[in-house]
Sequence to fold (271 residues):
Amino acid sequence: MRRPVMLMAAFLLVVALGGVASAADTLEAVKKKGVLVAGVKDSTPGFGFVDEKTREIVGYDVDFVKAVARKLGVRLELKPVTSASRIPELIEGNIDIIAATMTRTPERAKQVDFSDTYFFTGQKFLAKKGSVRSLADLDGKRIGTAKGSTSEQNARKALPRAAILSFDDYSQALLALRQGKVFAVTTDESILASLLGKAPNRDGYEIPDIQISDEPYGLGMRKGDRNFVAFVNRTLVEMEKNGEAKKIFDKWFGPGSTTPLKRNFTITADR
Ligand code: GLU
Fold:
C-alpha cells in the first residue's frame, strides 16, 4: 500500500514542478501561441502613443518589442498599460513583457526581472518659461506627475514641501499645467521633451536644467523567466551591434524629430 502512495506523490510532484517550469517559460509559451503580448503606453509621445493617421500605437518602446517579436517569428499584440498598471498586468499574466518607459530600480526588481538598459534619461521638470531657476522655486508648489512612477517618488523626496498630484498619465499632467492647476510637471526628460514637442504653445514652456535622478529604462519580464530574459537581452545587444537600436533612437529622437535628444548610452550586456 505504501509504495503506490509514494509513487503517486512523486508523480504529482513532477507534474506540479513541470507545470511551474513551463508557466514561467514565456519564451516557449509565446512561440507556442504565436503571439507576443506587450504592455506599452498609449499616450506617452516618443515611446508609446497613438499615431493620428494610422490610429496604431507607435513609438520607441513599440519598435523594440516589434524587433523581439520579429526575432521570435511571432505576431505582436500591443496592450495599453499605465505606470501604475504595468507590473500587476505582467504578474497576472495579461501581458508577456513590459515596454513602457519603465525605470530599472532595485525595488521593482523584487517583483519583475529587467532586461539590460535600452534607454537612458533623467528626471526633470516642465514649467512656464522663466518660472523655475532652481529646485527651491518648486518646493511648496503643486507638481503634476503620474501614479506608480519613480517620478512621483523622486519628487516627494526632492521637494518635501510640494503637493505632488498624481495623474494616470503625463498627458493629463500636462493638461493640468496648461490649465494652471499645477505649477510644473515632473518626469523623465525624454518624456517631457516629447510632450513639449507636441504641445500647442510650446514656446511658453521650458525644461530647466535641473535633474533630480537617473532613469535607465529596462524591458520588464516575469520574475525568474530566465530563458526569456536571456533571449531579450541577446536581441537588444544584437540590435545595438547591427545599428538597429540607434536607428530606432534616431527615428524618434534624432536631429530630424520634433524632440531631438542626445543618445547618451549604448546597449551593453550587464550580467
Ligand atoms: N521612468 C519612470 C518610471 O518608470 C517614469 C516614467 C513612467 O512613469 O513610466 O516610473
In short: Residues 83, 100-103, 146, 149-151, 187-188, 191, 215 surround glutamic acid (CB under 6 Å).
